[in-house]
User: Fold this.
Amino acid sequence: MSIEVIIFFLVAISAIVSAVLMVIQRNPVKSVLFMIVNFFCLAIIYLLLHAQFIAIIQILVYAGAIMVLFLFVIMLLNLGDESLLKEKANFRKMIAYLLSGVILLELIIGIILPPNTFLQTQSPEAVKIGSVEAIGASLFNNYLLPFEAVSILLLAAIVGVVVLAKKKFK
Amino acid sequence: MELLISVIKIVVVMGVMLGIVAYVVLLERRLSAAIQNRIGPNRVGWQGLLQPIADVVKLVFKEDIVPLKSNRFIHDLAPIISLAVALTTFAVVPFGDKINLFGYDIKLQIADVNIGILFILALTSLGVYGLTLSGWSSNSKYALLGGVRSSAQMISYELSMGLAVLGVVMIAGSLQLDTIVEAQAGWKWNIILQPIGFITFVTAAFAETNRLPFDLPEAEPELVAGYHTEYSGMKFAAYYLSEYANMFVSSAIITTLYLGGWQVPFVHSFGFSDFWIGIIQVFGFLTKVILFVSFFIIIRWTIPRFRYDQLMNLGWKFMLPVSILNLLITGLVILLLS
Amino acid sequence: MLTDFGKVFIFFLIGGLFVAAGLIAAWVIRPKRWYPSKLSTYECGEIPVGDAIVKFNIRFYVIALIFLIFDVEVVFLFPWAVVFKNLGMFAFIEMLVFLSILFVGYAYVWVKGDLEWDKPAPQLPSINSKQLKISTPQTTPD
Assistant:
C-alpha cells in the first residue's frame, strides 16, 4: 500500500466518525465543531485527488463562511436546553433509516460491481485539472455562460437575503 | 534526508518564531511606554530583556478558572484553535531565497504551496472560531458580546482582504508566494505598484488581528476584556500569544505581498558570496517584519477606537467598493501595458 | 516523498506540540483551589443576573448571509486573476459583466438599508424633579 492509500483510509475513517458524532451530539455547537472536522477531512481527500482549488474552497467557503452562519443561527435562536429537542415522531425516524439504508446499499453495489474503479492511480493529465490555473482557463474558455449565470444566481441570493431579513425585522 | 531537513527547518522556524513573538510583547510594552512618556518594564534582566520569561513563569503558576456554567470542552478548545491558526499561517511564508548549507540546497520556506494566498485566506477565515467559541462557551455576557462582535467584524473585513490581494495576484499571475516575491525583484515592490491595494489590505489586516483601532471585541471601557474575560493562566497566555503571533504573521504576509519579501535592493552589487547574500536577505526580511510590527504598535497607541457602526460602515461601504475599484484599475493598467 | 501540504501538516503538529507542552506543564504545576464564588462569571463584582446567552440582534445574521454570497464571488475572482495576463481583454470584459451584475445586488442591499448599523443616538439621563425618578438610557446591546 502506498502512503496515499494509508492517508486516504485514515482521513476517510475520521470523516465518517466526525459525521456520526455530528449527528448524535446533543449540543448544537459541538455538532458544528464536528462538522468543521468533517469538512477538513473532505478537504484532505480533495487534496489527495490533486484538486487543490476545490480543497481550499471547501475550507474557505464551507468551514469559514457557512459554518460561521450556522454558529450565528444557533447563537441567535438560543435553544437552551437541548434535551427538549428530542425527536418524538418515530414514523419520520423510520423513513430516515430506510432512506439512509438504501443509499448505503447503493454505495456498496457501486463499489463492488465491475468495472472496478476503486484504488486506481490517477493519470498525469487528471492531476493538472485541479490547479487554479487550469480551472481559470477552462472557466473562461469553455464555461463562459455558466460562469455568467452564477452571477445572476448570486444576485437572486442577495435579493432573497434582503427579503428574508425584512420580513423578520418590521 | 528530505524529511529530516524539513523537520529540522520546522523546529528551528517554530522556535525562532515563538521567541520573536514573545519579544514582540516586550517591544509593545517598551514602545507604548516611550509613547506615553513612561519607562516600561526594565527590571528583569538588562533593559527588561528577560521580562517575557518572567511573564511565562508567572502565567504557568496561575490557577485555571473555568466558570461554573460554561462548556468546559469548548472553553479549553477555543484558545488552542486561535493559537494554532495564527502559527500555522506562517508555514507558507517564504523568509529567504535558497541557501546552501553543508552541501544541501535548503529553501527558506516551510512549504511552497502553489495556492499560498488562498491558504492564508482560508486559515484567516478559520480564526473566527477561536474568538466566537470562547465568547459562547464562557457563559458570560461580556464574552458573548465580544465574540459575536469579533466574528461579524472579521467576516466583514475578510472580503476586502481577499479583494485587495487579487491585485497582487494579477500582477504576479500566480498564487504562489515564492513567485510573488520573485516578481518584486529590484524595486518593483507591490507597495509602489498597488498603493490602494496596500492600504486596504493593511486596514483589513488590522481588523482581522483585532488590533486598535479595530479592537471592538475587547473594548475595555464597555466589554471588560471581551471574548477572553473568563480566561486565566496558560489559556489566557495562549490568547495573548495568539494576538501577537497574528500581528507578527500578518506583518510577514504584508512584507511578502507588498514590501518585496526577502528582496534586499542592491545586495548583489557588493560582491558577497551567495551564502552571505542569503543570510542578508533573511535579516532583511526580519527587519522589514519587525518594522511593520512596530507600525502596528505605534498605531495602537496613537489612534482611538472606532465605534461599532463606524467600523461596519467602513468595512462594507468604503473598503469593499474601493477594493473592487482597485481590482478594475489594475486590470485596465495591465491591459494597456501589454 | 513529502508534499508541501505534508510539510504544512508537520508544522501544524509541531506547533501543537509546543502549545500542548505549555498547557500540560501548567496543568501539572498550577494550584487548584476552587470554590463556587471564584468560579462564577465576572459581572463587575455582582452576582450574575439571568442567563448569559442572550438572543442578539438579527443584523449579525444578515451580515453573515451577505458575507457568504460575496465570499463566493471573491472565490470566483481568484482563477480569473491567475489567468488574466494570458486571456487579456476578453477576460476583462467578462469579469466586468460578472461584477456589474453583482454590483446591482450590492447597491440593492445598500439601498434597502441592510448595511446600515444603528448609530447609537446620544441619550442623556434626565431627572424628573417632580417624581424624583432618574431615567437611564435604554440601548440594545450590539
